[in-house]
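Team,

Forwarding the record for the chain on the shared tracking sheet. I've put the sequence and predicted structure together so nobody has to dig through attachments.
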Amino acid sequence: MNTYCFFKEKLSANDKRCYDALVQGLLSTQRSIDLGFVRGDIATIVQAVMSDNPMIFHAGDNITYSGLGGVQIRPKYTMSPEQKERANRAVLLNAQTIANRARKVGDEWQTVLNLHDQLASKVIYDLTEPNAHTAFSVLVHDRGVCDGISKAFKLCCDLLSVKCIFVNGKAKQTASSPFDAHAWNKVNVNGVWYNIDVTFDLACSQGGTVGHGYFLVSDGDIAPTHRADVATVACTSNGDYFGKTGYVYHSADGLTRYLVEKMDKLPFKLEIKFDPSVNMTGAPNEVIRAAQNALAILRRQGYISIRYAEEARAATLMVE
C-alpha cells in the first residue's frame, strides 16, 4: 500500500525520524515507544502520524508522553495485539474490495467518484458506534462519524495510489448552524487538488440518496461551511460533477426542456446544481413546476419531490 504522508513531509529531518519510530511502534502495539531527543513539537508529530496513517486505528487519542533528554510515548490502545491483527485483516480486506470496485483504469475522476459513492451509500452516521472515529468502524461495521469516514476514504485512496489528505477543522450544515468539529479530505485527481466531504454527501443525510454537493469542490465553494484547522494545499478548481453528469440550473424553462429530453422512463432522478446567479428563494418550487410541465408535455403522471442542500446549492429531483 502506498500511504501518502502529506504531514510527514512538512516535518524537519529529525522530526521525520521521530515520526517513523512512532508509526513503527504504534503498528506493532508497543507499550512504550522511545523517540529519543525531539527537536520539534511532539503534539504536532503525533497529529501528523494519526492524520497520515488510517491503519493506526487501535491507538486512542489520549497518547501521553514524557521525558526531558528523550521522549517516551505511552499509547493507550483500544484493542489487544490479537484483536488488532484480526481487525487489520478485516479492514484491509474490506478497503481493498471497495478500492477494487471503484478502480476505473485510466480514469482517475471516475475512480474517485466510484469510491465516494460506495462509501456515501453504505455508511450510516452513528456517534454511538464503538470506535466511531476510526476507519475500522466505518469499513468493518459501516458506521462511524466524520473523522472515521474521512480516514476510511484516505485508506481506500492509498490503496488506489490516489493522493489524499485528512483534514481536521470545523463545519456547519446551514448558514444559521454553528460551526462544530468536523473532518473531511482533500484529494488529488489528475494532478489537481479538490475538497471532498463524503460525510456531508451521505445517503442517510440525503433521504436515502447519495449527494454530490461536496464532491471535488474548490476552497471557495466550501468556504461558507468549512474551516480547516491547519492549512494544507490550495484547491482552486471545481471538479464540475454537475456539468459532467447532472444539470446546472439556470432557469425553469431550461430545466423543462432538459427533462423532456431525459425523462423517458420513471422513476427518474436528477441532481441539480444551482447557478450562482440563481436566487435560492423559491428555486426548489420552480424546479418542481418545471418537472410538472415536463410531465404534462410527455403526458405522464408522476409523484414529484425535491431535496436540496442550500449551502451546497445542490438538489436532487425525484419523479416516481
